[in-house]
Amino acid sequence: MDAELVWPAELNDDGLYRRIFRALIAVGASTDEASDALQEAYEQILRQKAPPDRIDGWLFVVAQRRWRRQRLRRRLFAPLAAARDQSVKAHDAGTVLSEVAKLPMRQRQVFVARHVLGLTNDETARALDIASGTVSATNHHALQVLRERLGGDS
User: Does domain 87-150 have CATH number 1.10.10.10?
Assistant: First the structure.
């Protein structure tokens, strides 16, 4: 029979939660975002087999990662939600997205960086660690393929 894991009392300390919550606000999270991220970090720490050495640091890092992931996800999907609200020529946003998903990985990455995130060629090149000219050529090819598949100047 396994011994029951006993968590340090620090985890139940309300001051710990408030300190990490304030730290998340300090790095830019809204109160709702900080609360959600910290809640998820608490859930994750309870699934760990053993408590980390620094509970406060562990919770902050996990909560901050969760918040950044959510922020990136919102940045990625906000333009897509807007695209759903507008007509995309004769195609709906779902059709366009399914065709984007069929692109090779490099073309898909460049297309999303340029047209969903709105990054410049140079920003995309830095993010993907490729040459700026490669970004231009890859983007051109991706757009060409999408136009052919969607039929016209979509």
Answer: yes
